[in-house]
Amino acid sequence: MFKHTPITPLLLTIISLAVAGCNRGPQLEGLAPCRGTVVFQGEPLAEASVVFSPKENKPGAKVAVATTNDKGAFTLLTLGQRGIYPGEYRVSIVKYTTVEAPTNRERAEQMQQGGRPVRPQRGESVIPVRYNDEQQSGLEFSIGEKGNKDLKIEIP
């Protein structure tokens, strides 16, 4: 006979979570691998956001995104999965300087003095601002069904 103990629900919960964690949802079909590097004025551009936006806004079109590493290298992801759908893309690159945000203590002191808390500010764009917008960047790429494992994006 099965005896109910307080540990039984805990074990069932752990097993359920373990089984659920193994299923990450359906894999996207048709993604092509895409890696590359971003170079600004001849140097790798680290910690930049890279966004590939489909040229045509048709049903099912998906944006692919990445963040460059310290060598300017990136791997595109679509909906969190490695790869990009084949097609024509406009590209934007975003990289801002970091601005020291006020501490919680500084914010609290400012509020006590009757002022509004200072919001953290975005720094200055490290690259020319036109590259922040895929419509103005002039960066366009065609990705084939086999993908591209050596894209080089150069920003003068």
Q: Key features?
A:
156 residues; alpha+beta; Immunoglobulin-like; four-stranded mixed sheet; four-stranded antiparallel sheet; 2 helices; 10 strands; disordered N terminus
How does this structure look, described?
This protein is of the alpha+beta class and 156 residues long. The chain has a domain at 27-95 and 125-155: Immunoglobulin-like (Sandwich). The chain contains 2 helices and 10 strands. It has helices at residues 7-22, 104-112; strands at 34-40, 43-44, 49-54, 64-67, 73-75, 77-78, 81-82, 87-94, 140-143, 148-155. The strands form 3 sheets. Strands 1, 2, 5 and 10 form a 4-stranded mixed beta sheet that branches. Strands 4-3-8-9 form a 4-stranded antiparallel beta sheet, with no helix packed on it. The protein is elongated. The model is unreliable at 1-23 (pLDDT under 50).
Largest sheet: 4 strands, mixed
In helices, the fraction of residues equals: 10-25%
User: How far is the N terminus from the C terminus?
Assistant: 76 Å
The quaternary organization reads as single chain
Quick one: CATH class of the domain at 27-95 and 125-155?
Answer: Mainly Beta
Output the CATH homologous superfamily of the domain at 27-95 and 125-155: Immunoglobulins
Poorly predicted residue ranges: 1-23
Number of helices: 2
- Mean pLDDT score, rounded? 82
Give me the CATH architecture of the domain at 27-95 and 125-155, please.
Sandwich
- The Cα radius of gyration reads 23 Å
Number of strands: 10
Structural class: alpha+beta
Order of helices and strands: HEEEEEEEEHEE
At CATH level 3, the topology of the domain at 27-95 and 125-155 is Immunoglobulin-like
Global geometry: elongated
- What percentage of amino acids are in beta strands? 25-35%
